[in-house]
Each structure stands twice: as C-alpha cells, then as structure tokens.
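Allow me, if you will, to draw on your knowledge of protein folds for a short while. The matter concerns a single protein, recorded as an amino acid sequence and a row of backbone structure tokens. Could you please explain, in whatever detail you think fit, how the structure tokens follow from the sequence? I remain grateful for any guidance, and I place the record below:

…
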Amino acid sequence: MKYSLACVVWELTLGCNLKCLHCGSTAGRRRTRELTTEEALKICADLKQAGCRGVALMGGEPLLRGDFFTIASRVRELGMELSVITNGTIHSEEIFAGLKKLKPRAVAVSLDAAGAALHDRIRGAEGAFARSGAFIERCLKEGLPVSVITTVHKLNIKELPGLRDLLKGRGIAWQVQTAGAEGGRFSEEFLLDREEFYSVGLFVEACRREYTPEELPVIGAHDLGYNSLLLKNVSLYDKWEGCQAGISVAGIRSDGDVLGCLAINDGRFIEGSALATPFYELWSRPGAFSYTRGSETSQAGPNCSACGHAQACKGGCSEMSLMKTGALHNDPYCFCAIEKELFAEELGDPFKKLKLRLAGLAGRGAFRRLGRMFSGERGAREN
C-alpha cells in the first residue's frame, strides 16, 4: 500500500532561547550533531521525491538557525507548502521580510496564557509574552497567516477563556493541545486529569458553537479525544481515523533521525536516519511504521479492546497512550470512555436521545471553512 505524505514536521534545531516547562524535547542546547545546510537541502529534495505536500519547520526555535531561510526557501522552491512554528521572541526586519517572501501556509506562535506573568513563568523567560505579542501583531500587519498554539496543563487551564477573548475577531487560527510528560522540565503533577482533559474539549466545543470559523477558528489538536457521544466540533476533521504517524505524517529530528511523530519522542520508534538512508526510502520501506501501518484490532490494549470504535480509532493518540500506559493502542484519555464513565448512569436511555439531537449541530460547512482558515486562506469565501 502506498501512503500519501501530507506533512513532515521537522525539528531544525534543538537549540532554543527559552526553557518552556512543558517542552517534550527539553529544548535549549543544540544536539551534539545537527544537520548541516547541505544535508538539510538534500533532505528537502528527498521529501519532495517522497511526495511530501507540506513541511512544518520547528525547533527548539527554528529562527535561531542562520540558514533557516535557505532551507525554508528550498521547501517552497520544490513546491511544498511551508509552516513555521516559533516562540515569536526573535524579531528583526529581515525575519519579517523573509517570512513574507516565503508565503507560508501558517506562522504559528506559542502562547500559553492571556497575561505576561504566567506565560513568562511557563516559558522560562521574562518578557516572553510581550515579545511574542509584538511578533503576532507584526505578522498580522504584514498580512501573514498567523496561528497560535496553546499547550494546556493544570497551570494554565483557567487561561483558556482569557486567551479566547484575546484572539477572537483577529483572524488568528488557534490550536489547543495538551501537555505530555516526556520533557525533563515538566512535573507529572501538572498533567490534566481526565475530567480536566474533557473540560478542554467542552471549551473548544463551546467556542465552535458560539463563534463562526471566521470569528474564532479554533481546533483541538490530534491528542484531544475521540469518538465523543456529545462533542462534534473539536477537531479540524469530522472523524478520527487513528494515529497518523507514518500514515500521512512523519517527523525529522535535527540530527536526521526519522519518527512517525516527533511528539512520541521515544528512540524505540526511530525508523532510521535520513542521513544514512534517503527519506523517501525510509517512508516507502516495507514494514516501516509498523505500529500504525500494521496495527490490528487485536493489538488494542485493555482501555480500547472492547470498544466498538477500536478498528477505526486504533487506540487513540500514540503519544498519549505511551505516556499514560506505556503501551500503544491503549489511550485512556478518550472522550467516549470518559463520557460513559461520567454520564452513563445519570442519563441512561435519554443519553442516546441527547446524542442524536447534538449530532446534527456539526455541519460539514463549518469543517470546510475551518480548513480554509487553517490553510492560510484567511480571506477565502465559502463556495
């Protein structure tokens, strides 16, 4: 079977000017061996040969690399879409001019609180909130397609309403995701519990119902729950089709190692080095990414084996499943399971009726319009 590669998330460097509490890569110092400019440009060509349609350049902080625009320009020259994920604290006229020239699909800036004190605490640097805010304002002024990424944990879950009010009506696409425990600076005591996790889904759902995609284009990331009986407006897509690591997405570390998803951040899932083997060979190799491409319902863990969605869902988010249970296909942070635990006894049969009533509230038109907002087409009109 041939797998279509929609996007590669590429960690250009592990170097970073911040020390974010929740950083899954514990970024700060560069890896001992990071790709040279020539090696990175070769990988760009390999990605094109693999049929890659889009590349998201991230770090660490990708703008710290002096050859960032050389690499980013090659991505665009080869006809691939480009997204840039930055903390927004590095400013210069050359950076904004360069970003405009690239015509990126998105410039995504991390923002974890609605005010400076908490954001700066989470980001490990005084003044980070002000610098990121100024970066966003300048991007908007330059007509760049701006996105904001918020990573939620116990420290900032109450910030969501304030962030909503800060972002709405400004043409900023907002992605809400949850923190994992892979990083060396993040304490597990700050991880969301199941009810808090579900409340994040409720928040996104409420925003999607109250605001149009043009007023507040907001989505929950790939880790934010599946197969809800109630919540139909959380993801960018109307149906969860299982972890896409190695199916339609892949990740490249700054040393060239290839994984299905960088969020997994586990050496056991390295498929090989893009330095030793061309990326297109790693992508098309028989047996590659077996944990998703070869997954079967029989592999589902105890949290998922009895679920009617197991075949399509494949046990939820691989990163979440590994973090919480140490195994794949066993994600305990599942909207369907949480809802059954929280509501089934109280609602009984009326729960089914409520499900049917709510199912009609998620029209496909909203998903199409959100897709345009998250693809950088901020001014596009509905056909």
Residues 356-363, 379-383 have pLDDT under 50 and may be disordered. The first strand starts at residue 7 and ends at 11. DSSP finds 14 helices and ten strands in the chain. The radius of gyration is 20 Å.
